[in-house]
Amino acid sequence: MTLSEIAAGVETVTEQRQRSVGSVDATGRSLDERFGESAASLPCAPSTAATVVEAYARGADLETAAADAAVTPVTAARVLYRCGVTSVVQLSASDRRTVREWLAGERSRTAVLESVDCDPAEFTLAGYVETHDPDPDLVAATAELFAGGGDATVQKRDRLAETMSSPAELR
Question: Whole-model pTM?
Answer without folding.
Answer: 0.68
